[in-house]
Amino acid sequence: MQGDTVDKRVLVITGGTVMRVAPRLDAFDLVVAADSGVDSAFALGLHPDVVIGDLDSVSASVLARARESNVTVIQSPTDKDLTDTELALAHLLTVGARHATVLSPGGGRLDHSHGLLAALANPALSAIAVEAIIDTAHVTVLHGADTRSIPLRGSHLTALHAMNGVARGVTTSGFRWNLTDEDLAPWVSRGVSNEMVAPVAEVSVDHGALIVVQPLAHNQSPTPNTKET
Length: 229
Known about the structure:
Layout: E1 9-13, E2 30-34, H1 37-43, E3 50-53, H2 60-68, E4 72-75, H3 84-94, E5 99-104, H4 110-120, E6 129-134, E7 137-143, E8 146-151, E9 157-173, E10 182-184, E11 194-195, E12 200-205, E13 207-214
Parallel strand pairs: 1-2, 1-5, 2-3, 3-4, 5-6
Antiparallel strand pairs: 6-7, 7-13, 8-12, 9-10, 9-11, 9-12, 9-13
């Protein structure tokens, strides 16, 4: 399934609690489910193209349905160095994705939450415009040099977090407190609890990785989702 679309958009659905409602999603060309993310895909009325992972948490009936529906199943060993979500994100490079949205139910385990954010900021994905919907939060990932427009979603509350080291040359507009060519370190909380004061804010970074978190962006109201054909 090598990518042949210049602007291919991929939806990645992670495992965890089965999602039966989701916010409205942009159009996409491919659905990749990480392990039990395939349960969520079918529950949301989506047809997954690929299921990837060790398949230790996929329900037997859903896995059978996936195989009967000619979904590509890529099974990995249970003992592995990468999480199922990391395998799904690595698959983005295989299919030639240029844009990716990760849909995750979130959950109560801190190690899983931290692992997901760390995986989103993987430098190997720097050529892909990655965003994530994690429970009610919206996460936008930047790798320098990069500029992203951040539309107001739900609450005005917004935070900036440096990833993978110091994010250098951070400049913002459209916030209550803006930055101009400044550095953010991952061990300080300067970027937390900012507020958007414009319909669309701009965030840029010259070097390093930065995530923009809108923690109350989605209501998780049931909305039909469609796949581009």
